[in-house]
Write a structure and sequence with these properties.
- There is one protein chain.
- The chain has 87 residues and is an all-alpha fold.
- The chain has two domains: 45 residues; 28 residues, no CATH class.
- Helices cover 60% and strands 0% of the residues.
- The protein is built from five helices and no strands.
- The longest helix has 14 residues.
């Protein structure tokens, strides 16, 4: 998943204006440690730290045949997801 860089960049601008990390974290509804990490990464890595780096996805819980069956089931009964799960 790729995240928009603009919130991180805005956090850096706010911090540069003297806004506390606690206030920034509250504004962006993130943990204080998250905001602090963004700032530390900026200090260490510069511009590349504002963007996410590619990372691997979690392995699927369903095997390919189960994925196909679940997609077909969802198309047949899109409002009955419990039926899809039961299948």
């Amino acid at each position: 998943m790729k995240h928009d860089a603009s919130p991180r960049a805005h956090v850096l601008l706010l911090r540069g204006q003297g806004i506390t990390i606690n206030a920034i974290a509250q504004m962006y509804q993130v943990d204080r440690d998250t905001g602090s990490t963004w700032i530390t990464q900026w200090e260490q890595q510069g511009k590349p730290s504002v963007h996410d780096h590619p990372r691997s996805d979690r392995p699927p819980k369903l095997i390919p045949d189960e994925q196909t069956l679940s997609l077909t089931s969802m198309q047949e009964a899109p409002r009955s997801l419990q039926q899809v799960v039961d299948r």
